[in-house]
Amino acid sequence: MDRNAEALGSFLKARRSLTRPDEVGVVSGARRRVAGLRREEVAALAGISADYYVRLEQGRGHRPSPQVLDALARALQLDGPTRAHLHRLASATGTGATATTTRVRAEQVPLGVMHLLETLDASVSAFVQGRFMDVLVANRTATALSPAFAPGSNLLEAAFLDPAIRDLYDDWDVVAREAVAGLRASVGARRDDPRLEELVERVSARSPEFARLWARHDVLPKVGGARRVTHPRAGAMDLLHEKLAITGTSGLLLVIHHAEPGTASATAFARLRAAPDDAG
């Protein structure tokens, strides 16, 4: 079976199970026994035959047209990023791609970005993460904010397997969901990369929470925002974070944490930077 077609089928099945009948105008009887929509209901909403939809879920269908994909996206009420992910998965079906052909070259941080991190150390926490959420380089303030931001760490593993990360973030559940959905957005249709498979298998084996979230097939591009953290030395801080794509690379991101100037959080963050090597 085409592994890309299988990935498309898994995505459709997962999103179907998460779509509530009442949200799409389907009358749900008291004897309903399935979570979400039935296959024939998705097919009817999308205007395609039930047999064709079943074959798509089973990984046996031909590559669907953009029109069919848009109809399925409407039926499953997919948002913009998730709709785009559906199209990427479908475009990979039937290509015969293998783990060897989809392997990404070793990730290298441009020298200019490494110099930039040293410059930023005087004011912000900054590190570079790869497509699979590996920390490639970091400044001292980043590692003072959390050892999970040190080079060699993996942010997905840390989010689910490191108790210190749960203690650091006041909204750990949001951080965890965004980490999983962000990984899906980052890898796109490259589901058979050996590095991804090994990472997902290892974290799934140790974290049922991760396995549950991964099975949802949520997709969310990595964006900036605000986080409230409680650092063991600096205390509570409201930090802003930015996630900036590094051009000319295969999906590397520059991640920056900083505090709004003139706030109590900025004062606390300055204490954190004052002696980063002493952080625990």
Note down, in words, how this protein is organized:
By secondary structure, the chain is α+β, with helices and mostly antiparallel strands. It has two domains: 3-97, lambda repressor-like DNA-binding domains (434 Repressor (Amino-terminal Domain)); 111-278, Beta-Lactamase (2-Layer Sandwich). The chain is 49% helix and 12% strand. It is built from 14 helices and five strands. It has helices at 3-18, 39-46, 50-57, 66-75, 80-92, 99-102, 111-120, 140-145, 155-161, 163-168, 172-187, 194-206, 208-215, 264-274, and strands at residues 125-129, 135-138, 225-231, 235-245, 253-258. The chain has a five-stranded antiparallel beta sheet. Helix 1 runs antiparallel to helix 5 and helix 2 (39-46) crosses helix 4. It is elongated. It starts with a helix and ends in a 6-residue tail after the last helix.
Q: What is the mean pLDDT?
A: 88
Taken in chain order, the helices and strands follow as HHHHHHHEEHHHHHHEEEH
CATH topology of the largest domain: Beta-Lactamase
The biggest beta sheet reads:
5 strands, antiparallel
Structural class: alpha+beta
In what order do the strands lie side by side in the largest sheet?
2-1-5-4-3
Report the principal-axis shape. Answer: elongated
The CATH architecture term of the largest domain is: 2-Layer Sandwich
What's the total helix number? 14
Question: Given this structure, which CATH class of the largest domain is correct?
Answer: Alpha Beta
Terminal residue distance:
49 Å
Q: Residue share in helices?
A: 40-55%
Strand content: 5-15%
Q: Count of DSSP E strands?
A: 5
Low-confidence stretches: 98-104
Q: What does the radius of gyration come to? A: 21 Å
